[in-house]
Design a protein that fits this description.
Order of helices and strands: HHHH
Largest sheet: none
Structural class: mainly alpha
Number of helices: 4
Number of strands: 0
Shape: elongated
Helix content: 55-70%
Radius of gyration: 20 Å
Distance between the termini: 23 Å
Length: 122
């Protein structure tokens, strides 16, 4: 089953919406990280942590933010690749890279950048 023009247009809109949302999230995280350091955000008046756990918490928060930024960047790359397929090689959009079978529309509705018929690890 190939996708209709209306389905393609709907999925293109979903891809653009997801791209805008993720780009906004990434920009907000970047702005937050570059604006103030962790000490300023916490309201600390001194560079000396009150407790060793505070330093660990700050480090954990920085690592979590970096991990989220990497995840968002990977999703943006997947969305860009899907938009590329949709606009430049539409015969490849919505086709499973593993089996060559059409990806069910229901799956594309949820994950419009899906490359395979099944979830990774499923």
């Amino acid at each position: 089953m190939s996708l209709s023009q209306a389905q393609r247009e709907h999925l293109a809109g979903r891809l653009r919406e997801e791209r805008a949302r993720l780009s906004g999230d990434l920009d907000a995280d970047r702005d937050e990280a570059s604006g103030e350091d962790a000490r300023d955000r916490a309201g600390d008046l001194t560079a000396m942590p009150f407790h060793a756990a505070d330093l660990g918490t700050d480090t954990m928060n920085a690592e979590l933010a970096a991990s989220n930024a990497a995840r968002i960047s990977r999703e943006l790359a997947e969305i860009d690749a899907a938009l590329e397929r949709l606009y430049h090689t539409p015969e490849r959009f919505g086709v499973c890279e593993d089996t060559g079978a059409p990806i069910p529309y229901e799956r594309l509705e949820i994950v419009p950048w899906a490359r395979t018929c099944r979830e990774a690890g499923a």
